[in-house]
Amino acid sequence: MKRHKMRFPLVLIGVFSGLAAGIAAQENSSILAALPDFPAPAAAGQNPASHAMPRVDWLYRVKRNIENSRQVAASCQIIFDGDSITDGWQSRGKKIWAQRYAKYDAVNFGLGGDRTENLLWRLAQGQAAGLNPKLIVLMIGINNTGGNSINKTVPNTPTQIAEGIGAIIAAYRERCPDAVILLHGVLPNGEKPSGSRASRKQMNELIARFADGNKVIFLDFGDQFLQPDGTISREVLYDFLHPDEKGYQIWADAIQPLIDKYLEGKS
How does the average pLDDT of the chain come out, rounded? Predict the structure, then answer.
Protein backbone atom coordinates (compact mmCIF):
# COMPACT_ATOMS: atom_id res chain seq x y z
CA MET A 1 0.00 0.00 0.00
CA LYS A 2 1.37 3.37 -0.98
CA ARG A 3 2.00 5.70 1.93
CA HIS A 4 1.10 9.35 1.54
CA LYS A 5 3.47 11.77 3.22
CA MET A 6 1.77 14.44 5.29
CA ARG A 7 3.58 17.77 5.11
CA PHE A 8 3.11 18.76 8.72
CA PRO A 9 5.70 21.58 8.75
CA LEU A 10 3.61 23.46 6.17
CA VAL A 11 0.53 22.86 8.28
CA LEU A 12 2.35 24.37 11.25
CA ILE A 13 2.78 27.57 9.30
CA GLY A 14 -0.90 27.60 8.43
CA VAL A 15 -3.50 25.82 10.53
CA PHE A 16 -1.43 25.22 13.67
CA SER A 17 -0.06 28.77 13.68
CA GLY A 18 -3.64 29.95 13.43
CA LEU A 19 -4.56 27.83 16.44
CA ALA A 20 -1.59 29.21 18.37
CA ALA A 21 -2.55 32.77 17.45
CA GLY A 22 -6.04 32.15 18.78
CA ILE A 23 -4.61 30.88 22.04
CA ALA A 24 -2.24 33.85 22.29
CA ALA A 25 -5.17 36.20 21.82
CA GLN A 26 -6.71 34.90 25.04
CA GLU A 27 -3.39 34.79 26.94
CA ASN A 28 -3.34 36.61 30.22
CA SER A 29 -1.84 36.42 33.69
CA SER A 30 -5.15 36.13 35.53
CA ILE A 31 -4.20 32.79 37.03
CA LEU A 32 -1.51 34.51 39.08
CA ALA A 33 -4.13 36.64 40.81
CA ALA A 34 -7.34 34.61 40.74
CA LEU A 35 -8.77 31.50 39.17
CA PRO A 36 -10.09 32.14 35.66
CA ASP A 37 -13.56 31.25 34.49
CA PHE A 38 -13.88 27.67 33.30
CA PRO A 39 -14.07 27.77 29.47
CA ALA A 40 -16.62 25.89 27.43
CA PRO A 41 -15.59 22.45 26.12
CA ALA A 42 -14.87 21.84 22.45
CA ALA A 43 -17.90 22.41 20.24
CA ALA A 44 -19.41 19.63 18.15
CA GLY A 45 -17.19 18.89 15.21
CA GLN A 46 -14.15 20.55 16.79
CA ASN A 47 -11.05 18.53 17.66
CA PRO A 48 -10.93 18.47 21.50
CA ALA A 49 -7.19 17.70 21.41
CA SER A 50 -6.46 21.18 20.04
CA HIS A 51 -9.03 23.09 22.13
CA ALA A 52 -7.31 24.72 25.13
CA MET A 53 -8.91 23.45 28.34
CA PRO A 54 -7.85 23.48 32.00
CA ARG A 55 -8.15 20.73 34.61
CA VAL A 56 -9.63 22.41 37.68
CA ASP A 57 -7.94 20.09 40.18
CA TRP A 58 -4.50 21.06 39.02
CA LEU A 59 -4.88 24.83 38.80
CA TYR A 60 -2.87 25.40 41.96
CA ARG A 61 0.13 23.54 40.54
CA VAL A 62 -0.12 25.47 37.29
CA LYS A 63 -0.03 28.71 39.27
CA ARG A 64 2.88 27.54 41.41
CA ASN A 65 4.90 26.40 38.40
CA ILE A 66 4.40 29.73 36.68
CA GLU A 67 5.39 31.64 39.81
CA ASN A 68 8.50 29.47 40.28
CA SER A 69 9.54 29.97 36.66
CA ARG A 70 9.46 33.74 37.16
CA GLN A 71 12.27 33.36 39.71
CA VAL A 72 14.66 32.07 37.03
CA ALA A 73 13.22 33.85 33.99
CA ALA A 74 16.49 35.61 33.18
CA SER A 75 18.66 32.49 33.47
CA CYS A 76 16.44 29.56 32.44
CA GLN A 77 18.04 27.71 29.52
CA ILE A 78 15.78 24.63 29.35
CA ILE A 79 12.04 24.04 29.66
CA PHE A 80 10.71 20.52 30.16
CA ASP A 81 7.00 20.15 29.45
CA GLY A 82 4.52 17.30 29.26
CA ASP A 83 2.53 15.03 31.55
CA SER A 84 3.30 12.78 34.54
CA ILE A 85 6.30 11.24 32.78
CA THR A 86 7.93 14.67 32.62
CA ASP A 87 6.56 15.58 36.06
CA GLY A 88 8.43 12.56 37.43
CA TRP A 89 11.76 14.34 37.04
CA GLN A 90 10.80 16.03 40.31
CA SER A 91 10.49 12.72 42.16
CA ARG A 92 12.07 9.53 40.80
CA GLY A 93 14.32 11.50 38.46
CA LYS A 94 15.30 14.31 40.83
CA LYS A 95 18.84 13.04 41.49
CA ILE A 96 19.66 13.00 37.77
CA TRP A 97 17.88 16.34 37.31
CA ALA A 98 20.13 17.89 39.96
CA GLN A 99 23.22 16.51 38.23
CA ARG A 100 22.29 17.32 34.64
CA TYR A 101 19.85 20.25 34.49
CA ALA A 102 19.86 22.30 37.70
CA LYS A 103 22.93 24.21 36.49
CA TYR A 104 20.88 25.48 33.55
CA ASP A 105 18.08 26.75 35.84
CA ALA A 106 15.80 24.31 34.04
CA VAL A 107 12.05 24.68 34.53
CA ASN A 108 9.70 21.69 34.65
CA PHE A 109 6.12 22.47 33.67
CA GLY A 110 5.06 18.82 33.32
CA LEU A 111 1.88 17.85 35.18
CA GLY A 112 0.46 14.41 35.85
CA GLY A 113 -2.60 13.54 33.80
CA ASP A 114 -2.16 16.35 31.29
CA ARG A 115 -3.38 16.00 27.74
CA THR A 116 -2.41 18.17 24.78
CA GLU A 117 -5.32 20.52 25.37
CA ASN A 118 -4.29 21.04 29.01
CA LEU A 119 -0.77 22.03 27.99
CA LEU A 120 -2.21 24.44 25.43
CA TRP A 121 -4.31 26.02 28.17
CA ARG A 122 -1.28 26.40 30.43
CA LEU A 123 0.53 28.24 27.66
CA ALA A 124 -2.51 30.48 27.22
CA GLN A 125 -2.18 31.48 30.89
CA GLY A 126 1.26 32.96 30.29
CA GLN A 127 3.25 29.91 31.35
CA ALA A 128 6.20 30.77 29.09
CA ALA A 129 5.97 34.55 29.47
CA GLY A 130 9.32 36.16 30.15
CA LEU A 131 11.27 32.96 29.45
CA ASN A 132 13.84 32.73 26.67
CA PRO A 133 15.24 29.18 26.85
CA LYS A 134 17.65 27.67 24.38
CA LEU A 135 15.93 24.29 24.47
CA ILE A 136 12.37 23.06 25.09
CA VAL A 137 12.02 19.34 25.83
CA LEU A 138 8.49 18.21 24.98
CA MET A 139 6.78 14.84 25.51
CA ILE A 140 2.97 14.81 25.51
CA GLY A 141 0.06 12.85 24.11
CA ILE A 142 -0.19 9.54 25.92
CA ASN A 143 -3.13 10.67 28.07
CA ASN A 144 -5.05 11.63 24.94
CA THR A 145 -5.18 7.94 24.02
CA GLY A 146 -7.62 7.30 26.86
CA GLY A 147 -10.72 8.98 28.30
CA ASN A 148 -11.91 10.07 31.71
CA SER A 149 -15.58 10.31 32.64
CA ILE A 150 -14.87 12.74 35.50
CA ASN A 151 -13.06 15.22 33.26
CA LYS A 152 -15.42 14.42 30.38
CA THR A 153 -12.55 13.53 28.05
CA VAL A 154 -12.62 10.91 25.33
CA PRO A 155 -9.86 8.98 23.54
CA ASN A 156 -8.42 10.83 20.57
CA THR A 157 -7.11 9.33 17.36
CA PRO A 158 -3.39 9.47 16.54
CA THR A 159 -4.16 12.13 13.92
CA GLN A 160 -6.08 14.26 16.43
CA ILE A 161 -3.28 13.96 18.98
CA ALA A 162 -0.69 14.89 16.37
CA GLU A 163 -2.75 18.00 15.56
CA GLY A 164 -2.79 18.93 19.23
CA ILE A 165 0.99 18.49 19.46
CA GLY A 166 1.40 20.58 16.33
CA ALA A 167 -0.58 23.37 17.99
CA ILE A 168 1.69 23.16 21.05
CA ILE A 169 4.81 23.41 18.89
CA ALA A 170 3.40 26.45 17.11
CA ALA A 171 2.44 28.05 20.43
CA TYR A 172 5.89 27.51 21.90
CA ARG A 173 7.59 28.79 18.76
CA GLU A 174 5.54 31.97 19.00
CA ARG A 175 6.41 32.50 22.66
CA CYS A 176 10.03 31.29 22.60
CA PRO A 177 11.18 31.94 19.02
CA ASP A 178 14.88 31.49 19.80
CA ALA A 179 14.45 28.05 21.36
CA VAL A 180 14.98 24.69 19.70
CA ILE A 181 12.12 22.31 20.47
CA LEU A 182 13.25 18.77 21.24
CA LEU A 183 10.11 16.78 20.53
CA HIS A 184 10.04 13.27 21.96
CA GLY A 185 8.11 10.30 20.72
CA VAL A 186 5.69 8.90 23.29
CA LEU A 187 7.26 6.04 25.28
CA PRO A 188 6.03 2.46 24.90
CA ASN A 189 3.90 1.13 27.72
CA GLY A 190 2.46 -2.16 28.92
CA GLU A 191 4.55 -5.14 29.96
CA LYS A 192 4.11 -6.90 26.62
CA PRO A 193 3.63 -5.74 23.02
CA SER A 194 0.01 -4.78 22.36
CA GLY A 195 -2.34 -2.90 20.09
CA SER A 196 -1.90 0.24 22.20
CA ARG A 197 1.79 0.23 21.41
CA ALA A 198 0.96 0.07 17.71
CA SER A 199 -1.27 3.12 18.11
CA ARG A 200 1.51 5.02 19.86
CA LYS A 201 3.92 4.04 17.10
CA GLN A 202 1.52 5.50 14.56
CA MET A 203 1.29 8.71 16.57
CA ASN A 204 5.08 8.95 16.78
CA GLU A 205 5.36 8.51 13.02
CA LEU A 206 2.95 11.41 12.56
CA ILE A 207 4.63 13.82 14.95
CA ALA A 208 8.09 12.95 13.62
CA ARG A 209 7.08 14.93 10.53
CA PHE A 210 7.08 18.14 12.54
CA ALA A 211 10.87 18.01 12.63
CA ASP A 212 12.49 20.59 10.38
CA GLY A 213 16.12 19.92 11.25
CA ASN A 214 16.45 23.43 12.64
CA LYS A 215 13.98 24.63 15.26
CA VAL A 216 12.18 21.32 15.81
CA ILE A 217 14.18 18.14 16.44
CA PHE A 218 12.41 14.79 16.83
CA LEU A 219 13.88 12.10 19.06
CA ASP A 220 12.34 8.69 19.70
CA PHE A 221 14.31 6.62 22.20
CA GLY A 222 11.44 4.38 23.28
CA ASP A 223 13.14 1.20 22.07
CA GLN A 224 15.76 1.68 24.79
CA PHE A 225 13.09 0.80 27.36
CA LEU A 226 12.40 -2.57 25.73
CA GLN A 227 13.92 -5.95 26.44
CA PRO A 228 15.11 -8.03 23.44
CA ASP A 229 11.77 -9.87 23.44
CA GLY A 230 9.80 -6.61 23.36
CA THR A 231 8.73 -6.69 26.99
CA ILE A 232 9.26 -3.88 29.50
CA SER A 233 11.02 -4.33 32.83
CA ARG A 234 9.82 -2.68 36.03
CA GLU A 235 13.43 -1.60 36.53
CA VAL A 236 12.99 1.08 33.88
CA LEU A 237 9.21 1.69 33.86
CA TYR A 238 8.07 0.76 37.34
CA ASP A 239 4.40 0.40 36.40
CA PHE A 240 5.09 -0.28 32.71
CA LEU A 241 4.35 3.37 31.98
CA HIS A 242 6.30 5.75 34.24
CA PRO A 243 10.11 5.75 34.47
CA ASP A 244 11.99 4.78 37.59
CA GLU A 245 15.41 6.31 38.25
CA LYS A 246 16.99 3.92 35.75
CA GLY A 247 14.42 5.03 33.18
CA TYR A 248 15.25 8.69 33.74
CA GLN A 249 18.92 7.79 33.31
CA ILE A 250 18.07 6.31 29.90
CA TRP A 251 16.20 9.52 29.01
CA ALA A 252 19.01 11.77 30.22
CA ASP A 253 21.63 9.83 28.29
CA ALA A 254 19.49 9.90 25.12
CA ILE A 255 19.24 13.69 25.08
CA GLN A 256 22.73 14.51 26.40
CA PRO A 257 24.27 14.95 22.92
CA LEU A 258 21.63 17.59 22.17
CA ILE A 259 22.14 19.25 25.55
CA ASP A 260 25.84 19.45 24.71
CA LYS A 261 25.13 20.84 21.27
CA TYR A 262 22.60 23.53 22.10
CA LEU A 263 23.66 24.51 25.62
CA GLU A 264 27.36 23.82 25.65
CA GLY A 265 28.12 24.57 22.00
CA LYS A 266 29.70 21.17 21.42
CA SER A 267 29.39 19.69 17.95
Answer: 87
pLDDT at position 36 is 55
Domain of residue 216 covers 8-27+48-263
Catalytic hit among 84, 196, 199, 233:
84
- Angle between helix axes 17-25 and 158-175 (nearest 10 degrees) is 60
pLDDT value at residue 219: 98
**For the domain that residue 111 is a member of, what is the CATH number?**
3.40.50.1110
Is 73 part of any domain? yes
Question: Is position 193 within any domain?
Answer: yes
Is 103 a domain residue? yes
pTM: 0.83
Let me know if 229 is a catalytic residue. no
In a domain, 92, yes or no: yes
Burial level of 151, CB count in 10 A (0-12/13-18/19+)? middle
| Count of CB atoms situated within 10 Å of the CB of 226 | 17
CB 110 within 8 A of CB 83: yes
**Which residue among 57, 223, 239, 260 is the active-site one?**
239
Pick the closest to residue 222 from 75, 208, 209, 70 (CA basis): 208
- Domains held by the chain: number: 1
Residue 184 is among the residues annotated as catalytic for this protein: no
Give SS3 for 101. coil
Residue pLDDT, tens place only, 80-114: 999 999 999 999 999 999 999 999 999 999 999 99
